[in-house]
Amino acid sequence: MARSPRQVAIDVMASTVRTGDEIRVGGQSMCVQDLQHVPGGAKRIKFASGDILTIAPTTTLTVLRTAEGWGRS
Question: Which superkingdom heads the taxonomic lineage of this protein's source (predicted)?
Answer without folding.
Answer: Bacteria
